Amino acid sequence: MIRSVRLTLLDLQVVYAGPVVSWPREMLQRTTSALEPLANASEARAMKAYMKDIAPFLGIRSNERRRALHAAWRGVRAPTSDELGETGLMLAGKLEREFSYAAYDLIARYVEVADETFLIEYMQDLLVTKPWWDTVDGLGTAGVSPLCRRFDAFDIVWQWSRSQNLWLNRAAIQHQRGWKRDTDVELILEPCDAHSTSREFFVVKAIGWALRDLARLDAPSVRRFLREHPGLGLVAVREAQRGLGTS
What we know:
This protein is 67% helix and 0% strand. The protein is mostly helical and 247 residues long. The protein is globular and about 60 Å long.
């Protein structure tokens, strides 16, 4: 009995030795501590200009960022789905662009814990937080594509496709990137068809990439789509033709 009490007291000392730091807060601290010392002012100016002043940068190249984050996140327990989403939003809310990149790096690392609500509860907000092609495409690869595949989430894809937000449109069009032989041809062509008359560059480009990828798997469907959509933007047509080997 005495030994049991002593163990309990030790446990209490551990629990109350200091404030409990939540997983999102810990990961935010680890990420900030890993990235801020790597800031490079000259690189930051060039990156900001290249990305059309969408946000300030620390000036950290991709490989350097990933190495730093890999080390900073080593040994951390896996999060819950909500912890992952909350942390992603906290990172994306920081000023410098590299923290938005860290958000999709983190999601890629722990995507297996994301549940079926993650796309609508967290990913949608992430896609429209200081959006530009860099974060939307990064989030697409890290989370949208694998989670749409896992949860058969076409209802959400179609909701994004019908949105007035062009970045949600782009995410919807590209929701099957990387699926290769598991690509659902009909479901990938539906959002392409819905936006076939668009003249918004980032939407038209997304259609082109979707058609280019699909051409390697189902060239007849892509040729038929091009015939049935003679008004398709030239950027999309060129990308599709590259996939068909006719450019």
